[in-house]
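Predict the 3D structure for this chain.
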Amino acid sequence: MQISARGDYAVRAALSLAAAYPALLSTQTISTEQDMPRKFLEAVLADLRRAGIVRAQRGAEGGYTLAQPPREVTIGAVLRAVEGPLAGVRGLRPEETKYEGVAQHLPGFWVAVRASLRRVVDEVSLADVVAGRLPAHVRRLTTLPDAWEPR
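Done. Predicted structure below.
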């Protein structure tokens, strides 16, 4: 899985909003705090607003806040709001793939890849990350011998 700059910025902005919840934060505050371009951040926040993850309030005292408490917003929901489906194969969902011959069992593998990804991104909330309390099964993944090694 490749996380684009858009996905990374969306998660970081959502974490800023989670830490401040239920207070409003301006785009300038988030941009400065997370060291990201303000115009790009505004586009990302617009995607998150359309997805119902954040809400905006206009005016001098306006800004953005999460639409739900941080414990109810998963990292997966934030990523999907800006990236679309997390596991695609040539533009198809894994269960939509079909192969012949020696690759005939490959769709099951793609579905397993998606399921393993979901076990992380859909089971970790913004509140978990802000508090530094990852679920045990996710924390264990970070302790595998080669987890921090590039491949």
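Helices lie at 5-20, 27-34, 38-50, 75-83, 106-121, 126-131, 136-141.
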